[in-house]
Amino acid sequence: MTNLLLNIDAGSIDWARAQFALTAIYHWLFVPLTLGLAVIMGIAETCWYHTRDTFWRDTAKFWQKLFGVNFAMGVATGIILEFEFGTNWSNYSWFVGDIFGAPLAIEGIVAFFMESTFVAVMFFGWKKVSPGFHLASTWLTGLGATISAWWILVANAWMQYPVGCEFNPDTMRNEMVSFLDVALSPFAVDKFCHTVISAWIIGAIFVVAVSCWYLMKKREVKLAKQSIKIAAIVGLIASLGAAMTGHKSAQSVAEVQPMKLAAMEALYNGGTDVGLTAVAWVNPFCQPDYQNEESAPLKIEMPYALSFMATNDIHGYVPGINDILNGYTKPDGTREPSVDEKIERGKKAIEALAGYRAAKYASSDDGTTAAAHLKVLQENMKYFGYGYVKDRNDVVPPIPINFWAFRIMVGLGCVFILFFAIITVMAFKIPLVSVITRRLLAAFGIIPETEADTHDIAGLPAWHYWVAIALVPLAYIASESGWLVAEFGRQPWTIQDMLPTWVAISDISSTSVALTFFLFLFLFTLMLAVEINILLKQIKKGPKYTDIKD
Amino acid sequence: MLSMNKHSLLYRVFDLYYDGFRHMKLGRTLWAIILIKLFIIFVILKLFFFPNYIKEHANKGEESEFVATQVLKR
Q1: What is the rounded CA–CA span in Å between residue A253 and residue B36?
Q2: Is the previous residue joined to A397 through a cis bond, with omega within 30 degrees of 0?
Q3: Greater confidence, A520 or A1?
Q4: Is position B58 within any domain?
Q5: Dist. CA A496–CA A493, nearest whole Å
Q6: Which residues of A115-134 are buried (b: 16+ CB within 10 A; e: fewer)?
Q7: CA-to-CA distance for A325 and A259, rounded, in angstroms?
Q8: Of the candidates A469, A532, A542, the residue with the CA atom closest to the CA atom of residue A208
């Protein structure tokens, strides 16, 4: 075995994290559009199946073509993350053991068989299989992608809330003791619902934007208007659903990752009847002085809303950062230990693990010493990761990123609800509501008075359509912001309370990780440019009404 | 050469893929991109930049001991 110096280069942690973030963010550019477009194209083809109007077939095929471009560009980009686990995060990779292996293996098999089979039928099978079988294949393509997302999110949720496992000190791995606890962890369920539903928003906004571009160019008017109708309904349901699942997600976070919630809210000192911060001054570039400040300056809050969001009770108790650092009493009367106490217990666990392994390999031990160490380890394993924490403030995640990313996500989420509500009214020409909405918009100067009684979504001034197009990058920013909150919020843990980043990392030089970071940056930028180029060309080309093979 | 019944399931599956791939237009470009990407990922990145750290540094069967050394001394 190589004798390592075990002197970890601090820069390698940051570079490895940056590289992982870059890869994950890049991968997540493709996944939500795949999941969102799958719903839109499925609905369009269902309309064809019921009406047998070739217009709907052409509409479905057009969105399937854009789905295909996005799918092809996104495929395999997630595999790079697994390479990074093996090279940069080898201790983590070993430590998580089969917990990660099982969901990822299932994801690989499901993705390969379901998607490769049904994608082929969807693209090649228009004249080869029955309409019913083709329709089923289109929906199963989307379902396959969604099931893939499920397993990936199960793996991610386990890192945030490790359940269904037991640490084996002989193998140094966490071993699965309950597959169901891992696969159906409430944290995973909430994460899945919120993530997938928010992905539909991206698909809906993309479809509205492309359709608006056609309306602006006065071409493909029927396809654009009908597609907007589908996307408006999907988008409205999804944006309302994202708000509801987001509330449920926040409750999960409040329960199992209270520090993340406190960082998201810049809540330095908690209590009961806590308000939700609408806005406050949190310097985006440095960690605030949470130990000495009562709360973030210039805070405007919605009374009781955070207590309600976290506990479903407007008077509920929400701990702040200092409460978590110092320890607090939960509403049920149990006491959450301070971080200092957790550090002590974590150190005991590490010492016990070392003692157990030494005793196990010592010929003089009859098993009693090893058993004694094992007992101590099991009693303190819950806080194992804290044993590596030198300063208790190291367990506080970067507050500015969490605070602002959360506000960007929620703020844009509210914009999307409003946007889809307006689009639904306009697309379906809902008479009374449409008139009221448009007159209100005119009254506030958002649209000119002359347009107040216009009902048709086609033929509006160009800026209306530009608004819809501008929402595409904003939808991605909202979605990626959600991931920033999820991942920055659990810092410094790679596995919550078990393994901090500086233990999870391999003993590698920062130079080698920095090199691959810039290599990825170049490759991803190039690939993204290629994808956007192909996608724009296909949009400009528009739907094909005769060729059914491509 | 094997002769296949054109109505058999096997032939129809084969024909779906064969005919589909043969008539691809945009699909050719996308497949070319996918293959280039897979080559870059599995041949260049995996072989030259992303070795399995534990396999490289630990003897076979001694991985847990290696990880224990890594984890316990930090």
Answers
A1: 41
A2: no
A3: A520
A4: yes
A5: 5
A6: beebbbbbbbbbebbeeeeb
A7: 9
A8: A469
Q: A188 CA to chain B: closest CA distance, Å?
A: 28
What angle (nearest 5°) sits at the alpha carbon of residue A307, between those of residues A498 and A286? 60
| Closest-CA distance of chain A to residue B32, Å | 10
Which chain B residue is nearest to residue A512, measuring alpha carbons? Answer: B49
Note whether A87 contacts B69, CB cutoff 8 Å.
Answer: no
CA angle A157, A238, A20 (to 5 degrees): 35
Among the residue ranges A106-115, A198-207, A528-537, the one predicted with the least confidence is A106-115
Has residue A550 got a pLDDT over 70?
no
pLDDT digits (tens, 9 = 90+) for A109-145: 887 788 778 999 999 999 899 999 999 999 999 999 9
* Residue the block writes with tokens 């940051």: A14
Grouping H, G, I as helix, E, B as strand and the rest as coil, residue A151 is helix
Residues A259, A319: Cα–Cα separation, whole Å? 8
Q: Which stretches within A52-126 are classed as H helix?
A: 54-74, 79-87, 90-110, 116-124
Structure tokens at B65: 């001991």
Region B46-73: mean pLDDT is 91
Residue A518 has pLDDT above 80, yes or no: yes
Residue ranges covered by each domain of chain A: 10-257+398-488+490-541, 263-335, 339-393
Q: Report, as an integer, the average pLDDT of A270-286.
A: 93
B4 part of a folded domain: no
**Would you say residue A75 has pLDDT above 80?**
yes
Position of tokens 């790679």?
A494
Among B8, B36, B59, B74, the strongest candidate for a mutation testing the A interface, having the largest count of A CBs within 10 A, is B74
Set of chain B residues whose Cβ sits within 8 Å of the Cβ of A93: 54
Amino acid making up residue A540? K
Q: What's the token pair of residue A290?
A: 């949470």
How far, in whole angstroms, is CA A37 from its chain's centroid?
Answer: 17
Q: Which chain A residue shows the shortest CA-CA distance from B73?
A: A6
Contact between A200 and A191 under an 8 Å Cβ cutoff? The reply is no
- Asked if A124 lies within 8 A of B16 by C-beta distance, the reply is yes
The region of weakest confidence among A37-51, A95-109, A250-264, A322-336 is A95-109
Q: Report how far residue B34's alpha carbon sits from residue B15's, in angstroms, rounded to the nearest whole number.
A: 22
SS3 A277: strand
Window 1-60 of B: residues touching A by CB (8 A cutoff) are: 12, 15-17, 19-21, 23-27, 29-31, 33-34, 37-38, 40-41, 45-46, 49-54, 57-59
B48 in any annotated domain: yes
- Kindly determine whether residue B74 and residue A6, on different chains, have CB atoms separated by under 8 Å: yes
Distance of alpha carbon A336 from alpha carbon A331, whole angstroms: 11
Q: CB distance B30–A354 less than 8 Å?
A: no
What is the per-residue pLDDT across A322-354, written as a single tens digit (0 to 9) for each? 999 999 998 888 999 999 999 999 999 999 999
Provide the number of structural domains found in chain B. 1
Domain hosting B68: range is 9-72
Q: For position A453, what pLDDT does the model report? A: 59
Contacting residues of A for B44, CB less than 8 Å apart: none
**Neighbour count for residue A81 (Cβ, 10 Å):** 16
Q: How confident is the model at residue B40 (pLDDT cuts 50, 70, 90)?
A: very high
Distance CA A90, CA A78 (A): 17
Partners of A100 in beta bridges: none
Q: Return the number of other C-beta atoms located less than 10 Å from residue A55's C-beta.
A: 16
φ/ψ bin of A266: left (φ > 0), alpha (ψ from -120 to 50), beta (otherwise): left
